[in-house]
Write a structure and sequence with these properties.
With 397 residues, the chain is α+β, with helices and mostly antiparallel strands. It contains 16 helices and ten strands.
Length: 397
């Protein structure tokens, strides 16, 4: 590898000069790269020498645009057999958010500064912080795919995310924590809901309350996975938003969850009148196929809250001028939150008093960090003054 100054005269007789780095890349091809300043040329020489030795160097002419790399990335997602929901999100992020800003940019031209400017532009154009985070995750995945193809040497998104990890983790822990009575139904609210349950929605909502299965797992649950003798429910599959059956979200998602007698007895009764279908689903629609989540929420979850009096007043008025009531908890996921809190609470609080590790396994979280990020504040702290005094006395006498 060598650095030299090059001088030439243009067709109009103007003298020009530049610095040229002459080198052979890792594939044995000769490359020339031109710089206006000597300092930039030597900096490139130092960096590319190390990259060539490590086998990570990609010449500009061998690189491609973000748009082209994105097309390869989404095609690879299809062939990898990812869920349709995931591949649809990848395409949406590429088409609507990444390509309009970075599509024509060469991969080798991306830098942390460029990605930060991209992030700022997304926010300035009205994207929420949560959406921007998802878009950056997709961009990082795109670049990781390009790295494996030898189209770019560095994943600048991963580098950027690493430098900001500590602050992001702390913010996520604060924002992700759920509150009883806000995100989690209280014990009294659950009692009222259970008392108001009836018809076809009683089995699925009871199962959600006392097993903590995700809505997708409930919609994909088969009778063959319900063990009435051992009073257990096995999770081996789920139904995505397109009603396609697939594997759970992660390896940890495949699990066995114990079910209380009320759930088992209700499921035994439900099996006698459950619509039959080729998938053998526990909670199908009237035709025996996968039930739509919006149907469960609008026809089952919301009405039972109204019937149980678990409501909030809206700004709208009825014909008598009284506030119109709405269900307090809009999302079905509130029942999963309740199950987690029920597992965590001690026996004298009407709960199971399970450890964080067991709660993680029951919920099917991929790591205990995820469980603690959301629910750590619900676990007994055991550090009040009286306990500390008793422990001190026991130790020192």
């Amino acid at each position: 590898m060598s650095v030299r100054k090059r001088k030439w005269t243009t067709a109009k007789g103007v003298e020009r000069e530049a610095w040229v780095v002459d080198y052979v890349d890792g594939q044995g091809a000769r490359r020339l790269k031109t710089f206006e300043r000597k300092k930039e040329a030597y900096a490139f020489e130092a960096t590319s020498t190390v990259q060539i030795m490590e086998g990570t160097h990609v010449a500009d002419s061998a690189s491609t645009t973000v748009q082209k790399a994105g097309e390869l990335w989404t095609a690879a997602a299809d062939t990898a057999g990812l869920e349709r929901t995931t591949t649809d999100q990848y395409r949406q992020h590429l088409k609507l958010h990444i390509a309009p800003y970075l599509g024509a940019t060469k991969l080798n031209e991306l830098s942390i500064a460029a990605v930060r400017a991209f992030e700022d532009k997304l926010i300035a154009d009205g994207r929420s912080s949560a959406m921007v985070r998802k878009i950056l995750v997709s961009l990082g995945s795109l670049l990781a795919d390009a790295q494996e193809r030898g189209l770019v040497a560095r994943n600048v998104v991963r580098d950027m995310r690493g430098k900001r990890k500590g602050k992001g983790r702390q913010e996520k822990r604060q924002k992700g924590r759920v509150k009883v009575g806000v995100d989690i139904p209280t014990r009294d609210e659950i009692k009222a809901i259970v008392g108001a349950l009836e018809g076809r929605w009683r089995p699925i909502i009871l199962t959600a309350i006392f097993t903590g299965l995700r809505a997708s797992e409930l919609r994909g649950l088969r009778w063959s996975d319900v063990d009435f003798t051992k009073r257990e429910i096995k999770v081996h599959q789920r139904a995505d938003r397109h009603n396609e059956i697939g594997k759970p979200k992660s390896i940890s998602g495949e699990r066995t969850v114990p079910a209380p007698p009320m759930v088992i007895n209700t499921l035994k009764e439900w099996k006698l009148k459950c619509p039959k279908g080729k998938e053998g689903l526990v909670f199908p629609n009237g035709s025996g196929n996968v039930e739509q989540l919006p149907n469960i929420v609008r026809r089952g979850w919301h009405p039972v809250q109204i019937a149980a009096g678990v409501t909030v007043e809206t700004d709208e008025k009825d014909e008598r001028g009284a506030p119109i009531l709405a269900p307090k908890y809009s999302g079905f996921h509130a029942l999963r939150h309740f199950y987690a809190s029920w597992c965590i609470n001690s026996a004298d609080q009407g709960g199971l008093g399970l450890s964080a590790k067991v709660v993680q396994e029951r919920l099917g979280h991929s790591s205990i960090v995820m469980t603690l990020d959301v629910y750590s504040h619900l676990f007994p702290r055991g550090d009040d003054g009286e306990q500390m005094a008793a422990a001190e006395k026991a130790l020192l006498g």
